[in-house]
Amino acid sequence: MERPGEERAGLNEATLGEGGMPGSRMGSPGMRAAGPASAGMVEGGAGAGDQGSEPAGVARGEAPPAEAARGAAAAGDAAVVPGGAAATPTASGDGEAAGVAALEERLERFRERFARARREIERVVVGQPQVVSEVLWALLAGGHVLLEGVPGLGKTALVRALGRVLGLRFSRIQFTPDLMPGDLLGTSILEEQPGGRRGWRWEPGPIWANLVLADEVNRATPKTQSALLEAMAERQVTAGGATRPLPRPFFVLATQNPLEMEGTYALPEAQLDRFLFKVLVPYPDEATLAEIARLTTGLAEPVPEPVVGGEAEVLEWLELTRGVLVADEVLAQAARLVAMTHPQHPEAPEAVRRFVRYGASPRGLQALLLGAKARALAAGRLNVSYEDLAAVLRPALRHRVLLNFEGEAAGVDADTVLEELAAVLEEQAHA
């Protein structure tokens, strides 16, 4: 199955060794008890990256990471080190204590760096905490983001700030109708070589960066959009008779204007499905407008400070996210929600049966789970709750639910349909 997110790096099941994630059975108030942990990560295709079936744990809420780690070490489960080699936990208390201490240090470093990164971004992107949160969750999950909003709301500023704070290579591409695939990916140049001979040299295009801003992506022709699709899906570029891998990590944050549709090319469903999240950027209120004006009309505009150590540390964050546990019961509920987006499902809500032509694909379930894992980790938890599923339900599925003619004529949008699914999830969480 094709799956969004970054390729998993050596995480498998249960407890991880030094520097890994715990496979402990965690419990606390506010989350529902579930069945035993299950394993099973499989190799597969690439949507926004590689992902297998999720490891399951017991998910009734949040235990402090230290307690969760100690429980994992005491359980004596099999371990997988970040390099991917399986190991059996040592029977000695010293070995267990060392593994717990390494995990606690790793998680504490993540919490501190992640909080600082968020604060630096919010110095530039004012009054959009939900947008910042959803973009950061998608980044932790290793997926691409489609930002939709009218001009002037800070979408480009958000992506620039993200690249600077994370220490990643940033590139901006302005999509226009005359943009060709070679302008995006790169081209081979015939040049004079030593000895008087001529040869071809590959000149990379602007897509060769860790963080790519595809500005007004719906203005490019389908030919150019398809070139971007390969880069998003496979994280590689085929051009000039060769296939070249893109830098890792690799994220595409695309923007589109929902108002100005003349001269645009609507993204096909297959390409929309490659975006982990679709994030709506709302218009700010009056207080936020005043703060934006104060910050941007003075002698010096705010500049975020670099916080994260670049590619290696971001890849470590992606690995941590993959290690967050999903209980069997939570996984089953997530699968049920995605299935209920299809009008032929026997439990589909009234709005789905009436207004939806086609529901979410299996990538919708992958996006839902990866986003929930990212939100749980950002909140300091190592297992997924129903609240995490509810928080990422709309950004993960709104671009994957296709409305029929009746829905479009009635002015219904995907979020209206998903509200009924969110109500189903809330009932289940309080059952």
Describe this structure in words.
There is one protein chain. It contains 15 helices and 15 strands. 42% of the residues lie in helices and 14% in strands. α1 packs antiparallel against α2 (93-124), α3 crosses α12 (362-378) and α12 (362-378) crosses α13. It has 431 residues and is an alpha/beta fold. β10 and β11 form a beta hairpin. It has a five-stranded parallel beta sheet with strand order 6-9-12-5-13. The two termini are 32 Å apart.
Short account of what is shown:
With 431 residues, the chain is an alpha/beta fold. It contains 15 helices and 15 strands.
What tags apply to this protein structure?
15 helices; alpha/beta; 431 residues; disordered N terminus
Record the SSE blueprint.
Elements: E1 26-27, E2 59-60, H1 65-75, E3 79-80, E4 86-87, H2 93-124, H3 129-141, E5 144-148, H4 155-166, E6 170-174, H5 181-185, E7 186-192, E8 198-204, E9 211-215, H6 222-234, E10 236-239, E11 242-245, E12 251-256, H7 269-272, E13 275-280, H8 286-296, H9 311-322, H10 328-339, H11 350-355, E14 356-358, H12 362-378, H13 386-397, E15 402-403, H14 405-409, H15 414-429
CA(first)-CA(last) distance? 32 Å
Q: What is the number of beta strands?
A: 15
- What's the helix count? 15
Give the overall shape.
globular
- Rg is 22 Å
Mean pLDDT, nearest integer?
77
What does the main sheet amount to?
5 strands, parallel
Kindly report the spatial arrangement of strands forming the biggest sheet: 6-9-12-5-13
> What is the N-to-C order of secondary-structure elements (H for helix, E for strand)?
EEHEEHHEHEHEEEHEEEHEHHHHEHHEHH
The parts where pLDDT drops under 50 for at least 5 residues are 1-91
What is the quaternary state of this protein? single chain
Bin the strand percentage.
5-15%
Percentage of helical residues?
40-55%
> Structural class of the secondary structure composition?
alpha/beta
